[in-house]
Amino acid sequence: MNQSLTQTTTPVKQSVWKSFLKSNWIGLVPFFAFIFFFLLLPSTNLLFKSFQDLNGNLTLSNYAVMQNPYVIKAYSVSLQVSVITSVVGGVFGFFVAYAITIGNTPRWMRSFLMTFSGLAANFGGVPLAFSYIATLGRTGFLTAILKGICYTDAAGLEVCPFNPYDNGFNLYSMTGLVLAYTYFQFPLMVLTITPALEGLKKEWREASQNLGASPWQYWRDVALPILAPSILGATLLLFGSAFGAYATAYALTGGSIYLITIVIAQQIRGDVLNNPYEGYALAVGMIIIMGITILAYTALQRRTTRWLKS
Amino acid sequence: MKKSRFDLWSIFWAVAALLYFFVPLYGTLDFSLRMKKGEISLLAYELVFSDPQFLRSFQYSTVMGIISVTISILIFVPTVYWLYLKLPKARPLVEIITILPFVIPVIVYVYGINTTFSRAPLRLTSNTFTSDILMIGGYVILSMPYMYRAIDVGMRTIDVRTLTEAAQSMGANWVQILTNVIFPNLRIAILSGSLICFATVIGELILGDFLIRPALGPYMAAVGRDKAFEPAALAIISYALTWASLGLIQYFSRGGTSQQQLTGR
């Protein structure tokens, strides 16, 4: 009944078609047609065009765009933001996940933080940027509170030491972007790392205690090595989620932070590179980085599920 | 003694997380209520709701959301059903395809759409109807990882083969099997997939912005560029909408935290 696709080697053309119609693959035609038209066609089109010159000849010269100083800058700013937010969000998220799994926190806090992480990890884009402007912008809620903490010094002058904007803070900068990204990054870490932390067996801790290990030794020699692939995998996921992000940065800084996604947006709007084909090469570069990231994440995740099941 | 030290350590991080979650939310709410100097008012909200452009973009995105959800269900339920019933060997392939939207950043995807469909032979971006088709296709693709996974998880819990054979022996045809047997059994999975798809459509900026359609995301970005208090009110409204959707999912699929969204940023 199934497996009839193997018959497609029949020499007569008509019977190939017939056997396809009879085969089970026919049921997937709507799905593949949709995927082809709306996903594969647009993305492979970028890929093919990145290897073409203005006359349609095959070339690698578009990839010389990677030596363009603006492009190098944009890639490095994007990488910087992604690495910083995935490490900051990863460490923060790890401790929060620790607190709600192994640590002794009140029950309501656990379920509440878990639910809220599920919501906040889905968070982002324009509204998130608005929230940060309303909170930490020049007239924001938290800025006003921090500004208001004042005292009169010995000379009778009023000093307000906590005004963030007097201390070099600026929301519309890299710092602001890191703060905003962390809002969805650390909950994503909580969601991805919690199953691994829950999988740490009590017996391992008891066994190491019986052998005289301190909590620090238990974490260094037992728990962290076991968790390492999960932590690395989750951090990669965070990296990918920050690297591809555009809307938050766009709404927060209006494009003044030179991320690679912002450059691509400018390229779509008005060909800032003066060569549409170089734009395609830029986009393919992003897909390659994301592809490697997600591939590594999947491989590490698979390793984790293996020991979680056993 | 040692134990209580660890408690404090945990509580410190839990409280830090709670603060990180709530300070920006409270800040937004507070800011959105302070449009009239020196008093609390709903003026910003009144202005938002009385803006005809808001109503238009809200209506547009809602309609787009409903159409996208419907098409998404019509594509993925029969596909996953077929995969379980007839073609399990193709499941890994389809699974890989469905996570591709994670690999292709939204801005790059829209770049591809724009490049492919704005010139001959497939000039689709030049009129509003075909642009809307591209928008819907894009929304379905962007929410595909969640929709597929939700339905896949749901399908795993029911015995597809037995149900199908039982329905067939009573003389049901394929359409009847799908609508009367499979859909009702998957309603929770379909509902959670639909809500996340809907939330994606409501929050999406990039597709509407670059295909120049009047969706909610581009409208909000435009308001953010030249107003001060309305954006805060809009943010609160948008949270209410998306979180109602996502809250419903959490309610219906208790404990299931396997759905993580990466799009919409």
How does this model look, in words?
- The complex is a heterodimer of chains A (310) and B (265).
- Chain A has 310 residues and is mainly alpha-helical.
- Chain A has 2 domains: 1-36, no CATH class; 61-309, MetI-like fold (Orthogonal Bundle).
- Helix content of chain A is 69%, strand content 1%.
- Chain A has 12 helices and 2 strands, in the order ααααααββαααααα.
- Chain A has helices at 13-22, 29-49, 69-101, 107-120, 125-136, 141-148, 174-198, 202-210, 215-243, 247-253, 260-270, 276-309; strands at residues 151-152, 158-159.
- Chain A has a two-stranded antiparallel ribbon with strand order 1-2.
- In chain A, α3 (69-101) crosses α11 and α7 crosses α9 (215-243).
- Chain B has 13 helices and no strands.
- Chain B is globular.
- With 265 residues, chain B is an all-alpha fold.
- Chain B has helices at 2-32, 43-49, 52-85, 91-98, 100-103, 106-117, 128-156, 160-169, 174-185, 187-203, 206-210, 216-226, 230-252.
- Chain B has one domain: MetI-like (MetI-like fold), CATH 1.10.3720.10.
- The model of chain B is unreliable at 255-265 (pLDDT under 50).
- In chain B, 77% of the residues lie in helices and 0% in strands.
- Chains A and B meet through α2, α3, α4, α5 and α7 of A and α1, α3, α5, α6 and α7 of B.
